[in-house]
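[Q] Does anyone have a clean structure-token version of this?
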Amino acid sequence: MQVAAMPRPGWSHRASATVASALLVLAIVLFPATPAVAAIDHAAEEELLCSLNDARRSEGLPSLRSNTELTRVARAHSVVMADAARLHHNPNLASDVSDWRLVGENVGYGPSAGSLHRALMDSPGPRANILHSSYMEVGIGVERRGSTLWITQVFRLPTGSASGTVPACGADVTTVAGESASVNSIPVTGDWNGDGFTTPGRFIDGRWELSNSLAGNADIVFSFGRPDDVPVTGDWNGNGITTVGIVRDDTWHLRDSLSSGGADHTFRYGRITRGDLPIAGDWNASGRDTIGIIRDGEWHLRNSLSGGPGQIVFTYGRIPRGDVPLIGDWNQDGRDTVGIVRDGEWHLRNSLSGGPGQIVFTYGRVLRGDVPVTGDWNANARDGIGVVRDGEWHLRNSLSGGPAQIRFDW
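[A] Here you go.
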């Protein structure tokens, strides 16, 4: 388990760990002694609030009231974290929140509200805040940047009576007002028809929409997985066609066809529920993609679709500090290697090892929410780069900065 301790004089703090696809959560509690919001995800805020109160009721605790002041503080801090691409507690929490006898905070980032809630409940510090019997009010702020949610939960025991409302939660808050199709869309890429071209796709609450062209049309649509699963893609059987998979509770479920149905490959690998980031690539130029995980900046790769120890292990990048990992064949040798995006700068390596980036350039506005993607857009056997920005794909065929060479909305 990755532990992030953030000591401050006079603060009693609890720190905890990571889950699923670059997801990290922390918690603090304080005892007595605003920037603009750009992309509030209201549906994720509601889902986290309902999940939080469901957890409290299951322990025989009263629901927390959603408080306007606490929500404002939480949203402002989520924006600060997203802008900096760095997870940290609000150093001004004690002064930003008024009229408190006890105040606490959970923060985190990850791909979905459901996976974040599970991470919070699996971590001692955040769980203690959620189930603290003294708290009466909560404010939740969720800032969406690309496919990543930055969340803050602020808890308060007020000096007077509690204010705010207890939400009426339905059975499925992820589909409120028909928002699920856009709110929970995760970009994916692959060669879905074996023609040598990488084209786009997206995973939306267990539904896959895949395009066979660089135009953003859904040519293949099917369901496989659940809303909070982590999507992965790869050519699992070496037939030249990318298919799909999901990781759920440390178990990988992979299919050899682009259709609904049961998994063709099922196995356990890594500690996804405790923060490992699942990845896939062709590490040995066999023509078949296999699996890997990133744990606290250390890459553990396997050359088979099975559990077991990592066969290739090395450290590269500062993943826990916000680096975005990349997979691709940068030099046309048929083998996937690694890279990271750090503060908008891409650092790529041609070997499965640590060391400085061998190809370094700046592309996109990753700190402002662009989602990096990679793929062989022109079928030249070398992966290029791209970003997805508010549903618009900006792709380049060369490993360099400059204007997008391929651009489409989807």
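[Q] Thanks! Anything notable?
[A] The two ends are 37 Å apart (CA to CA).
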